Every structure is written in structure tokens, then in C-alpha cells.
Amino acid sequence: MSSSVMESQLCQNFHRECMAAINRMVNLELYASYVYLSMSYYFDRDDVALRHMAQFQREQSRKEREHAEKFLKYQNRRGGRIILQDIKKPERDEWGNGQEALECALQLEKTLNQALLDMHKLATEQNDPHVSMSGTAWHSTLHCTETGPGPQWSYADLTSDVKSDDLVHNWSKTEIFCQ
């Protein structure tokens, strides 16, 4: 081929806009991982010292990185091309108290969820059933309601209830799974 980017023989009915949307999701998931990592090490500082909040946010960072890796693997499996972008620096370096950080995390999760919904909408418009909401279980496996020690909880629940590091410690010890 004469072009610098070879077309994959696996690529079939995979619209370029869908490929680009997946690449944007990778970037957003890595950004979220970066934000949670920043939160984690902020709460691990000796002058803040919320050890369990630090552990909780470090785990969130790991999960977001895994989400990005799932998108990268999917892009390769479909024959798409991975185009990595610069990861934006978190908008802040100081996260205040636990509640303030969790409120920021809630907004970030809403942004991730909306981006995922937008990607599914685009895929539906482009007749790509593999990426559309009906063709994947991504939405439920990547960003879903998680179950903690009691009834269903989310970042919204954490922000309304968190008053101490002990509460985050209790949640972080609980197995979290999607329904």
C-alpha cells in the first residue's frame, strides 16, 4: 500500500467516526485514571493523611486504566487504529477534604458516562451494532451502579455521606461489582 497507515483486513463495517470515538474514550479513561491517581497521592500526604481515601482513589485509578485498556484491545480486535493523544493534567493539585474530592469524582464519572452514551449514540447513527448500546455490554461493565456494604451506592452517595476516612475505608474493603 502506498499510504503510511495500512488498512486492517479485519476492519469491516467499522466507521471511522466510531474508531475516533473509541480513541477519545481511551483518552478520557486515562485522564480519569490520572485524576484519581492525583487524588490518591494527595490524600496520602503526611499533612492530609487520609490513608483509606488514598487507597480508594488509587483503586479507582487502576479501574479507569483497565477500562482504557479494554477499549484499546477492542479497537485492535475490530481492526481499528489506536491513536493516543496527550493526557490532560488534572485541573487541580489540591483536593480539599474527602467530600470535596468525591464531589469532583462524581462530576468526572458523569462526564465519563455521558461520553460513553454519546459514543453509543454515534455508533447507532453509523449502523455499527458492535459499538452501539444494543451490541455491547460496555456501559454496564465499565460504568454502572456499584454495590457496597448496604444498598446500591455511587459517588453521589459517597459525597452525601462521607464525613470521615473510616467510611471510605469500610467501602473500599467491600467487594464492588456491577449488577
Automatic annotation (TrEMBL):
Transmembrane portions of the chain: none
Annotated GO MF terms: ferric iron binding; ferrous iron binding; ferroxidase activity
Cited Pfam families: Ferritin (PF00210)
Catalytic activity: 4 Fe(2+) + O2 + 4 H(+) = 4 Fe(3+) + 2 H2O
Domain Ferritin-like diiron: 12-163
Binding site for Fe cation: 29, 64, 67, 109
GO cellular component, one term: cytoplasm
GO biological process: intracellular iron ion homeostasis; iron ion transport
Keywords per UniProt: Iron, Iron storage, Metal-binding, Oxidoreductase
Entry-linked InterPro entries: Ferritin, Ferritin-like, Ferritin-like_diiron, Ferritin-like_SF, Ferritin_DPS_dom
PROSITE patterns hit by this protein: FERRITIN_LIKE
Family: Belongs to the ferritin family.
Function: Stores iron in a soluble, non-toxic, readily available form. Important for iron homeostasis. Has ferroxidase activity. Iron is taken up in the ferrous form and deposited as ferric hydroxides after oxidation. Stores iron in a soluble, non-toxic, readily available form. Important for iron homeostasis. Iron is taken up in the ferrous form and deposited as ferric hydroxides after oxidation.
Protein name as it appears in the record: Ferritin
